[in-house]
Amino acid sequence: MPATPPPTTPPAPAPAPAGTPLRASRWTALGVLASSLLMTILDGSIVTVAMPAIQADLGFTPAGLSWVVNAYLIAFGALLLLSGRLGDLIGRKRMFLAGTGVFTAASLLAGVASSPGVLIAARFLQGVGSAMASAVSLGILVTLFTEPRERARAFAVFSFTGAAGASIGQVLGGLLTDALTWHWIFFINLPVGAAALLVALPALPADRPARARGGADVLGALLVTGGLTTGIYAVVTVEEYGAGSARTLGLGALALALLAGFLVRQATAAHPLMPLRVLRSRAVAGANLVQMLMVAALFSFQILVALHLQKVQGYGAAETGLAMLPAAVVIGAASLGLSTRLIARFGERNVLLTGLVLLVGVLGLLTRLPVHASYAVDLLPVMLLAAGFGLALPALTALGMSGAKEEDAGLASGLFNTTQQIGMAVGVAVLSTLAAARTDALTAAGRPAAEALTSGYHLAFAVGAGLLVAALAVAFTLPRTPRPAPRELTIAA
């Protein structure tokens, strides 16, 4: 922690940049940003436990039910990069407030939905609002906390919120669905969103928008949004149409063409939407790639373990959430209690590598998960090793934002969140498809349902472990980060 100033008159501090809030207000602002992130993360995971209740109540078909998740993922993932850059151009505070307002209003619409179409539309709007608010959150954070140790602590709080929020969402989703109705998984966002808006108005700094001579890059915005939308749509519908279908391959080719056109546009435009200088930093580019691989792999932990508990072990929604609670606890402890100290002592790269090794252990153990598993023997050790996520994510967040200049902070924040969503979409499509294919093959061969399901999950866990090994290999190439020097009291000359 920063040293306490002596009771003598200190030297006059350098003037703070315009719009920078006082020390206490900065931590209040961090609380607002973390609360908004918590809403977003909770909304992504809280739905998974309530899906059976939603299907039964609204009459979703099996294929249609997947769009309760897919509509959110497509809007969120496709608009993050654009929202981040627009935040730089019109003001990150304005973008955050607008996004939080849209998300809160869409949560009300989702809560009162009485038909599949209304719920899917509300989920799409939630994704839009989440993209607007999330894309600029890290950009605001890095301009608030410029001192290395305080920034590390802020990243730890922010990462804890994201890492533990997914597991908390499963616990909360199960409890709300069983005790009340599935509608309350959306209504719970209303007081949180309203409070975030009220506190954000005075707490967040009134940032100065970047100059945008020549206007925003409209063509670049259309290309990247169209490419990401098409690509994520192709990925999340793989299970329905097949990876080798003409439809999936055609959409994938179109997405690649649009994204290639976007990169060409950014290299030649006078005022690009995403200046390619952001990707010249080895730390930034590498951290985004590691995150994409890690998030794709950990879909198998977050979702497939919950499915195993319900479909194979016979747990209810609330029991499943409580069974996942130890993971949330150790992730939180690692994020808040250990990561800052370890990063200060060993650097982001070494902490990231340690976290990834622990996560490989998580999925490695899950590949041996028996059909009739004992929670204490087979699952609790896995939950405890999940602490690796609490170590890896703060280090990745610091690396992912390390090379961004102040005028590009919103863009770097949007890019970091975009790779996270792409990783999630890839994990959903690839791992769930592989698990389902293995399960179907074994069921057709006459194997018992529980055994077929478990074998399918084993395949997904093994592929996820391979993705984490690839993430480890990329992490080894990241530059070593210097350790922060001890704070010293300097006397002005």
What does this structure look like?
The protein is mostly helical. The chain folds into 2 domains: 23-205 and 273-476, Growth Hormone, Chain: A; 218-272. Helices cover 77% and strands 0% of the residues. It has helices at 23-58, 62-65, 67-90, 92-111, 116-144, 148-179, 184-187, 189-203, 218-236, 238-241, 246-268, 282-311, 317-346, 348-366, 375-385, 387-401, 409-444, 449-476.
Give a summary of the structure in a few sentences.
The protein is mainly α and 493 residues long. The protein is 77% helix and 0% strand.
Gross morphology: globular
Specify the helix fraction band: over 70%
Secondary-structure element series: HHHHHHHHHHHHHHHHHH
Main sheet: strands, sense, barrel: none
Tally of contiguous helical segments: 18
Radius of gyration: 22 Å
Mean pLDDT: 77
Terminal Cα span: 26 Å
Q: Please give the CATH architecture of the largest domain.
A: Up-down Bundle
Count of distinct strands = 0
Q: Low-confidence stretches at least 5 residues in length (pLDDT < 50)?
A: 1-22, 484-493
What is the count of distinct domains?
A: 2
Question: Helix/strand-derived class?
Answer: mainly alpha
